[in-house]
Amino acid sequence: MAPMNGKWTKIDQNGAGPGARSSHAITIVGKKAYAFGGEFSPRIPVDNKLHVFDLDEHTWTVASVSGDVPPPRVGVTMDAVGQIVYVFGGRDLEHKELNELYSFDTSINKWTLLSGGESGPPHRSYHSTTADDRRVYIFGGCGNSGRLNDLWAYDTIDGKWIEYPSAGEGLKGRGGPGLAVAQRKIWVVYGFAGMEMDDVHYFDPAQNKWAQVETTGERPTPRSVFSTCAIGKYVYIYGGEVDPSDLGHLGAGKFAGEVYVLDTEALEWSRVEDGLGLENHPGPRGWCAFSVGRKGGELGLLVYGGNSPSNDRLGDIYFFTPV
């Protein structure tokens, strides 16, 4: 049975940090979290600094970097394999969709442009990214011609992109879906496809095919732009937008604040009791930066910032652990 309880810890931030933002990205490498991109005002990228948060000291610094520094962007994703952070896509100040893949070597603080232009996935923003110990996966998002439903992987050892078979019409193109690797499969959970969705699909690389699954249990309501992490066979989702704003990205929709967990073996959802409504709970929000990783030896979900029901960007940091 999936863990039915969880706890949130609000993490203090010592000194000046990057501050409030949404549509940004963060990933954990060792005892540090690397944050990049995002917006404070809708659609306007804040900066292209790489902000580094020490998970032990709770202090922010700005990395002194070299190499091919990415321009500012929103709707960007990042993940890490080993000591290397990978940043893909997003949308620039002119609202242009991007498709460059950058790496950042945390051991030497150097950016490298790995692909772009005609190579690799098409341009997109508000897509989803996850990684295993070798590959970085990209799914969906908002492309130049609408919402996408394609799955790609960058093989960090071979240095090449892999385009997987099309998911077909059964998996509608979408932005802000959950994406996670569990049981050697790549899971696509929910997302926005013109409406908030509540379907679950996976791609099996061993079989080279897609499948849609029917889930049971206490299923979350349809939603998108939530925080996602996989721990073992369990996929956790937190928050997200359950009713979009009439103003689109310029406004704040209705946000959820619950945590749910999907057992990818039993295909059963459970609501996690995590103290919703208490002082140390992050509450309803979406468009957050999030990452799976360890803090103090515990494996869990780091959540930084996001957008609130009042349309104010947030700058706080929380860490969720199943108990």
What does this protein structure show overall?
By secondary structure, the protein is mainly beta. It has a single domain (6-322), classed as Kelch-type beta propeller (Neuraminidase, 6 Propeller), CATH 2.120.10.80. The protein has strands at residues 6-10, 25-29, 32-36, 51-54, 60-62, 66-67, 77-81, 84-91, 97-105, 110-115, 124-125, 128-131, 135-143, 146-155, 160-163, 178-182, 185-192, 196-204, 209-213, 216-217, 227-231, 234-238, 241-243, 254-255, 259-263, 268-272, 289-295, 298-307, 313-322. Strands 6-10-9-8-7 form a five-stranded mixed beta sheet, with no helix packed on it. Strands 11, 12, 13, 14 and 15 form a five-stranded antiparallel beta sheet that branches. It starts with 5 loop residues before the first strand and ends with a strand. The mean pLDDT is 96.
Provide a concise account of the structure shown.
By secondary structure, this protein is mainly beta.
Q: What CATH architecture do you see?
A: 6 Propeller
What would you report as the Rg, rounded to the nearest angstrom? 18 Å
Beta-strand residue percentage: over 45%
Q: Which strand order does the major sheet show?
A: 6-10-9-8-7
Ends apart, CA distance between termini: 13 Å
- The name of the CATH superfamily reads Kelch-type beta propeller
Number of helices: 0
Secondary structure: number of strands: 29
Q: Return residue spans where pLDDT drops below 50 for at least 5 consecutive residues.
A: none
CATH topology: Neuraminidase
Q: Biggest β-sheet, characterized?
A: 5 strands, mixed
Spatial shape: globular
- What's the CATH class label? Mainly Beta
Helix fraction bin:
under 10%
Order of helices and strands: EEEEEEEEEEEEEEEEEEEEEEEEEEEEE
What structural category do the secondary elements indicate? mainly beta
Name the average pLDDT: 96
| Total domain units | 1
